[in-house]
Amino acid sequence: VGGTFTDLWLRTDDGRSFVCKSPTTADVVTGVIDALHIAARTAGVSTEELCGKVDRFGHGTTVGLNALLTGRTARVGLVTTLGFGDVLEIGRLRRGTAGLEGLDLGNYFLRGQVAPLVPRELVVEVAERVNPQGEVLTPLDTGSARRALEALRDEGVEAVAICLLWSTENPAHELEVARLAEEILPGAFISVSHDVAPTVGEYARASTTVANAALGPVAGRYLGNLQAQLQALGMTAPIMMTTSAGGVVPAAALTAVPVRGLLSGPASCVVAGQALGVALARPKVLTLDVGGTSFDVGVVVDGAPLLREEVTFGGADMRVPSVDIASIGAGGGSIAAVNDGILTVGPRSAGAEPGPVCYGKGGTEPTTTDADLVLGVLDPDRFGSGGIRLDVDGARAALAEKIGEPLGLTGIEAARAVREVFDAAMADLVRSVTIERGHDPREFTLVAGGGSGPSHAWKLCRELGLDGFIVPATATAQSAFGAGTSDLRTTASRTCYVRLSPGTVPDDDHAAILTAAFEDAGRRALDAMPHPERAEVVYTAAVRYRGQTHHLDIPVDPEPDAAALVALLAAFEAEYELLFGKGAGFREAGFEILSVRAVAAVRTADASASTTGEQLAVRDVRPVVFDDPHTPEETVVLGCDWPAADQEISGPALIQLPGCVVVVPPGGTARTDDGGNIHVKVGDAA
């Protein structure tokens, strides 16, 4: 479920696949049910018959993320240790700039503008104290806890977040406060930090626990309503929700910890690209998802997506294991403008209402969609799933007035300039997640998705030196495809402090600390798994040089001995120098191992998209601007709903799929494979 469209991918038992789109509704659930009705009509059955046959229902949604960003969450109270009530206000050094990107980082007027997730009057303190070893220094004063919770009750809170110092090492006090909260605030959603974010650092742990509490009632109502409506239509398959870390879990698991699904949509897109890479024996994959408002990039290395431990939303840092996704405000609805003689594209977006100028809904500011239309890439009579006929003349006039006149360009030159700036911004983001992290983008397979990704991938390839890209037949519903085919995967983390002074060699005592932490993390990851006996578990440790802020996650054996820890540190240093350059390591500082993570997964038996398809049919021939705005090239326009295998196309050509257009540039070629994927070679620039 996206902000504009709800995407659905359906695979039938006879091998057919369909991509369906329905407008996202205000209550979200109605849009999901509408998409099911469309899918049933497409498959030629009734909705009840379709739902009765479904044996897997994967689901990803932006409901939680949108609620968090717009403030439409439950009213939350926070319980902290006495003396630490200002934890959310103080935050970290970058508290005032968290969430700002690009040029906004240098704008001091934007700093400190985001309020904490919980206002100070809803933060209460209780008398208690536990030390870093889990020893009780000050027993919990249940009287102060009762008074604090009663104050929150009187303020009308719907959810309670509990974050006490060092509860990761001894959760007894948090558990007792949670018991009291259930007694004093019956029906309130209770979120405890040692379960939600069992990591070191009270600020990120508190903000994560608060976000989870704020989303709990929202997620519970939404999933309960959806489940009831699906069951009324005859569906018996359980809802499997995608998580930020990739993979799916039973919906009940995310109902308790909804914060772990904040990035479920983008993560599903990366997982879909990972599955395609596995099917095609491509271990390195770059996934591009260009929607209406944002451009998301995911990186898959050695067949697995890169992960991160922390994300930032609404000015708050949260400890949420997530697929590492980089984003910028660049999409089909990104507004182009000229300020002080400089052309910019995004991050402001026209959204769906009023949308780009060409939508004819009152928009007056040109966007990248307007530019693509004027350049001939988009067909005004075949656009998306909204039944909109695009206004070419309006788009051209807006580009000429708002972009062309200030820069001394014609309308067509202005459109090409917008595309150049847009593509350059996307290429810069791809470089930041590859070259700046020690990866050569030319070694990766580029998988383009979203409504605009297949249209701009050819330019990205030329910018980055790649020879081509792949567009799945599910391109405009990649996240839905990922949700439908992802592995069952659960993730659990556990703190463990191992500090190694300069010159210290790891010994068996250090290994025993890690082994105990791995045992706990692995047990919790498997406990959340419906079929633990079929799961494979992979373990990593978070390692950094002493005194540093950030760490790297390094794979390690779950029962390491001293020699394995020496190898772990060597692997960390090799990875560190790969990222930051030879000689960047500084073992003279010593090392710290901060935490461990266990990822349990049950592999999906079949993640293929389709075994059938159609021949591409010629729909049009029209002029399209590729490089020179004054000499557009006559370009054949082909299309179908799902391409059959073994078709060869020579550029210039446009291939229309449901919801997107694949651009094959002059000198380029394209072919289709058994899964309906289109492999494009861009050739040399003219």
UniProtKB/TrEMBL annotation:
Gene Ontology CC entries for this record: cytosol
The Acetophenone carboxylase-like C-terminal domain, residue ranges: 531-679
Ranges for domain Hydantoinase/oxoprolinase N-terminal: 1-184
InterPro entries: ACX-like_C, Hydant_A_N, Hydantoinase_A, Oxoprolinase-like
GO terms for biological process, alphabetical: glutathione metabolic process
GO molecular function terms noted in the UniProt entry: 5-oxoprolinase (ATP-hydrolyzing) activity
Hydantoinase A/oxoprolinase domain residues: 205-490
Pfam families to which the protein is assigned, alphabetical: Hydant_A_C, Hydant_A_N, Hydantoinase_A
Name of the protein this chain belongs to: Hydantoinase/oxoprolinase family protein
